[in-house]
Structure formats: structure tokens, C-alpha cells
């Protein structure tokens, strides 16, 4: 995959199997810090460590790629210190792959006082109140210092629930910012820059963005601007439109998606990579993910329940602890959060491994039917999931 100016992107994708019915595919993604089997879920880390989970524990769960948070890391300890620590890999003591975000989304979502101009995103630091301008070049500079295997372009993010000229403006600006990001990348031989497809919920704008961005020779593409509270019916139609027009030989990353049903459906629609704070965030509220939904371990009904969270789960939490123990622990100790976080990450990673196995064995449609039956025992499947799966020839009985 040759890029411009004689550089070769440090990424290759081998498609190992394609579902004969749907758009699902199983690939081997080669990155500077090792191979990543896809479809893959990437847990999200903040401040260089997963909340309550060490790099070592994450590795033990079989994780080969996780997210580092550019906004937080760029602010403190700051890119210079992280560069001295041999990049984010050295700082986190993580020898597997890392993906960093541009920092833009964090700003728009976390910082009220942000302003977007052609130059970049201007905002007030929540740490010291100083005015900061994050430009596409600055974002890449920080991500170059962090040394991540995959960097994300700064994009102009608008809420997926708004429509009108602002959506069009943001889409065109994101294309211009992609070009500035490509020009700013100092390490094209060791760090992959991904473009982010925008265009809101408007198929014409999405298609325009796809046409323009796929002309650029970037190593991979993300589908952005979704999963922000829009109707699911709009969501899946934008996802499938995107995968229809993205290049076959490059990875497709659907940003911010992490509910089990959404993962399975979007694999059927042709996506390879996913990230979401949901599994770790929900763990902090005592919610443990299981194939039939979730267990709210704070509830009294678990006080005398001496089963593991899931008897079919082989994670360290399920091997060692009962629901009753975790329930009791919640009253006194933050260790409960740690144990449930471990389990929830294991659940997501194992779900994707099962999805992948089924694609490799050409039984993905049957896998989806079984998964949905287990998740929605009463067969009250969500309408959008029925429609999305039907669009790729998988019918739910
Ligand atoms: Zn478990």
C-alpha cells in the first residue's frame, strides 16, 4: 500500500474470510506493534491507564489494541514528557498497538466554551483556564509525540441530531483538515493516519465525503459523527452507506459503538474496528455484561447468589468471584469496579472473537440468529436491528 512521496504505510490488511450472505469479514490487520485479528473491539484508556485495569491485565485478556486519550494526555502530563518516556507505549508500559484520537471530540463534548473556526478548535483549558487552539497540525504533532500506531485526524464534529448548513460546512471542513493532517504527519513510515468520514445523517453529504476522502491515500478510514443519540434507523443506514463506498483493502473503524447488539449488526454491515467507553463506564455503575443482557450487581437479588457473573466466562473475575461477593464488595470497596471492568472488557473481546470465528467458518448468519435469540429471549428484537440485518440478507426468526 504505497503512499505518496515514497513512504509506505506501516499497516496492511489481509481479508481472510468474507461472509457469503452479509458484508461481514474477518481480517488480519498488521500494525507496528503486532497483528490485530478483526473484527476487533478496542477498550478505551484515559490518562494512560484503563480505569482500574493495568496494561498487564489488559494484555492477559488478549487485548492487542487499545485507545489512548489525546486530549487528556496532551494536557497532562503533556506531549514533551510522554516523548521522553519513549512515547505512550513506554509511558503506559504497553507493548501492543495504540490508537489515539485527535482530541477534538473530547473538547466539543467536554468543554462548553469551544469555538470552531477554519484554523481549528479554540477552547479554555479546564485545568488552568488558558486559551488553547487545537489545529489539525497541532493534533498530529501531539499524536506524533505520543507515538501511537493509529492516529485520528482532527475533524469538525457536529451533533448527529442537528441538520442544515452547519452539517455541510463541518463535512467540507473535515476534508480540508484531513489534508492539513496528512501534510503535518512527521512519521508516515511508523504511524498510520486515519480519515474520519462525516456528513451527518444526510446520504448525499456522506457520499460526497466518502468520494473525496477515499481519493486521499490514507491507511484507514473511520466512520464518524454517529452514535450521538440519533435514531437507530438513521444510524445503520449511514453505516452501511459508508461501508459500501470504502475501499475493500483498508480497515473500517466505526467510532463510539460498543453495545453488543450494535457490534454484531455493524459487523454484518462490514465494519472491522470499534471502540466505546460503554463497557468500562457501565461497570462503574455495577453493571456486568452477559450474553442475555446485563446483571445489576448492586441489586439485592444477588446478595446470596453464589454463581459467577457468567459460568461460561473464563475471565479472572468469573474464575475467582461470585455475584454475592461482588455485591457485598460494592458496599465497602472500589475493588468491585475493578473486577467488573475486567469482566466487561473480557466479554467484549470474547464476543468479537466468537463473531470472528463464525465468519471464518462461514456460519456468521447462524451466529447472529443465536446471539439475538439469547440477547432477546422473548424475540422482541429491536426493529432497527431486524431491518439492518435484513438489508444484508440475514433474517431473524
Ligand atoms: Zn467474566
From TrEMBL:
Protein's gene: QTRT1
Family matches, as HAMAP family: Q_tRNA_Tgt
Molecular function via GO: metal ion binding; tRNA-guanosine(34) queuine transglycosylase activity
Listed name of the protein: Queuine tRNA-ribosyltransferase catalytic subunit 1
Compartments where located: Cytoplasm; Mitochondrion outer membrane
Gene3D superfamilies reported for this sequence: Queuine tRNA-ribosyltransferase-like
Any Pfam family: TGT
Catalytic residues of the enzyme: 101, 275
The protein's role, per its UniProt record: Catalytic subunit of the queuine tRNA-ribosyltransferase (TGT) that catalyzes the base-exchange of a guanine (G) residue with queuine (Q) at position 34 (anticodon wobble position) in tRNAs with GU(N) anticodons (tRNA-Asp, -Asn, -His and -Tyr), resulting in the hypermodified nucleoside queuosine (7-(((4,5-cis-dihydroxy-2-cyclopenten-1-yl)amino)methyl)-7-deazaguanosine). Catalysis occurs through a double-displacement mechanism. The nucleophile active site attacks the C1' of nucleotide 34 to detach the guanine base from the RNA, forming a covalent enzyme-RNA intermediate.
Amino acid at each position: 500500500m504505497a503512499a505518496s512521496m515514497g513512504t509506505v504505510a506501516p499497516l496492511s490488511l489481509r481479508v481472510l474470510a468474507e461472509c457469503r450472505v452479509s458484508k461481514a469479514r474477518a481480517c488480519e490487520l498488521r500494525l507496528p506493534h503486532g497483528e490485530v485479528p478483526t473484527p476487533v473491539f478496542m477498550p478505551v484508556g484515559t490518562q494512560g491507564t484503563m480505569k482500574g485495569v493495568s496494561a498487564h491485565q489488559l494484555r492477559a485478556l488478549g487485548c492487542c489494541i487499545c485507545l489512548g486519550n489525546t486530549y487528556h494526555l496532551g494536557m497532562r502530563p503533556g506531549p514533551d514528557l510522554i516523548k521522553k518516556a519513549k512515547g505512550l507505549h513506554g509511558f503506559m508500559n504497553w507493548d501492543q498497538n495504540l490508537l489515539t484520537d485527535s482530541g477534538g471530540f473530547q473538547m466539543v463534548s467536554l468543554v462548553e466554551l469551544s469555538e470552531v473556526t477554519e484554523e481549528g478548535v479554540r477552547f479554555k483549558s479546564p485545568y488552568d483556564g488558558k486559551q488553547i487552539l487545537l489545529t489539525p497540525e497541532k493534533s498530529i504533532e501531539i499524536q506524533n509525540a505520543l507515538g501511537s500506531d493509529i492516529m485520528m485526524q482532527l475533524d469538525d464534529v457536529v451533533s448527529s441530531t442537528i441538520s442544515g448548513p452547519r452539517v455541510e460546512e463541518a463535512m467540507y471542513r473535515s476534508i480540508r483538515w484531513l489534508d492539513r493532517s496528512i501534510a503535518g504527519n512527521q512519521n508516515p513510515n511508523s504511524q498510520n493516519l486515519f480519515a474520519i468520514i462525516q456528513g451527518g445523517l444526510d446520504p448525499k453529504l456522506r457520499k460526497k465525503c466518502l468520494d473525496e476522502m477515499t481519493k486521499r491515500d490514507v491507511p484507514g478510514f473511520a466512520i464518524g459523527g454517529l452514535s450521538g443519540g440519533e435514531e437507530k434507523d438513521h444510524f445503520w443506514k449511514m453505516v452501511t452507506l459508508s461501508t459500501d463506498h470504502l475501499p475493500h483493502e483498508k480497515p473500517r473503524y466505526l467510532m463510539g459503538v460498543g453495545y453488543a447488539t450494535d457490534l454484531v449488526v455493524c459487523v454484518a454491515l462490514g465494519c472491522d474496528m470499534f471502540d466505546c467507553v460503554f463497557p468500562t463506564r457501565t461497570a462503574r455503575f455495577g453493571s456486568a455484561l452477559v450474553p442475555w443482557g446485563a446483571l445489576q450487581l448492586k441489586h439485592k437479588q444477588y446478595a446470596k447468589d453464589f454463581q459467577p457473573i457468567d459460568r461460561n466466562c473464563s475471565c479472572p473475575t468469573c474464575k475467582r468471584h461470585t455475584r454475592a461477593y461482588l455485591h457485598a464488595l460494592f458496599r465497602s470497596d472500589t475493588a468491585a469496579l475493578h473486577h467488573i471492568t475486567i469482566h466487561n472488557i473480557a466479554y467484549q473481546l470474547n464476543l468479537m472473537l466468537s463473531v470472528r470465528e463464525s465468519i471464518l467458518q462461514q456460519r456468521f448468519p447462524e451466529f447472529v440468529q443465536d446471539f439475538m435469540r439469547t440477547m432477546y429471549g422473548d424475540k422482541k428484537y429491536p426493529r432497527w436491528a431486524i431491518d439492518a440485518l435484513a438489508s444484508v440478507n440475514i433474517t431473524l426468526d
